[in-house]
Amino acid sequence: MPGDRSDDMPGLVVMGVTGCGKSSVAAALAKRIGARLIEGDAFHPPANIARMSAGIPLTDADRAGWLDRLGEEARACLAGGEVPIVTCSALRRAYRDRLRAAVPGIGFLFLALDRSVAAERVARRPAHFMPPSLVASQFATLEPPFGEASTMTLDATLPLAAIVERATLWWEARPDKARGERPGAAPARLPPG
Ligand SMILES: Nc1ncnc2c1ncn2[C@@H]1O[C@H](COP(=O)(O)OP(=O)(O)O)[C@@H](O)[C@H]1O
Ligand SMILES: O=C(O)[C@H](O)[C@@H](O)[C@H](O)[C@H](O)COP(=O)(O)O
């Protein structure tokens, strides 16, 4: 699936519905490119965790403070000279714009999968606060980031290594890298699909 890289990307958000592989992909990608992982789940206030554990979807108001917290973490990471990779469902355009306001040009890697696979993965995942009953509301809320700047969509059912490989190529081809660290270098070619 195509990626759009019209802005510089100082860091990344790995986004998508519950069970799409955000935590798995972001951890592996952070290791691969030497970035700092900011695990979004670790920044929910206890009230949000309690709601989700009880099978109640978060509201815009529940998510607002969490998104701001993630934006602050990403900014602090950049200020410290590190590259942030944030896991955050970022389901709506407005949520992504809130993160973009905190970190202009931040990129979004969207892991796309259908709801039956998401439901299956969430049901099989041990000891996690998200119950399978919340999968439907995640899909109802999702606004895919198609056409937005600095976004890349990948098939979340590819093997983890293939996702990380494609994401790494996209990251390496980002404009500031091409301009700054590799003057005159052509951006790396993205693999088909
Ligand atoms: N590419 C993949 N292929 C198969 N299973 C995956 C893949 N990525 C993640 N998983 C599995 O799916 C489940 C959900 O992954 P996770 O990273 O926790 O998703 P999220 O953080 O988006 O909720 C986990 O059991 C994980 O091992
Ligand atoms: O790992 C997961 O299962 C979730 O996707 C998690 O990363 C996220 O915190 C929730 O989805 C709650 O936030 P939203 O209701 O905004 O998705």
Description:
By secondary structure, this protein is an alpha/beta fold. The chain has one domain (3-181): P-loop containing nucleotide triphosphate hydrolases (Rossmann fold, 3-Layer(aba) Sandwich). It has helices at 22-33, 46-53, 60-79, 93-102, 115-124, 135-141, 160-172, 175-181; strands at residues 3-4, 12-15, 36-39, 84-87, 107-112, 151-155. Strands 1-6-5-2-4-3 form a six-stranded mixed beta sheet, with helices on both faces. The protein is globular and about 45 Å long. The N and C termini lie close together (5 Å). The relative contact order is 0.24. The structure holds adenosine-5'-diphosphate (ADP) and 6-phosphogluconic acid (6PG). 6-phosphogluconic acid binds next to helix 1. It is an enzyme of class 2 (transferase).
Number of domains: 1
Shape: globular
Question: Helices and strands, in N-to-C order?
Answer: EEHEHHEHEHHEHH
The number of helical segments is 8
CATH architecture: 3-Layer(aba) Sandwich
N-to-C span: 5 Å
Structural class: alpha/beta
Short description:
The protein has 193 residues and is an alpha/beta fold. The chain has one domain: 3-Layer(aba) Sandwich (Rossmann fold). 45% of the residues lie in helices and 13% in strands.
Q: Keywords for this structure?
A:
Rossmann fold; 8 helices; alpha/beta; globular; binds adenosine-5'-diphosphate; binds 6-phosphogluconic acid; 193 residues; disordered C terminus; single chain; six-stranded mixed sheet
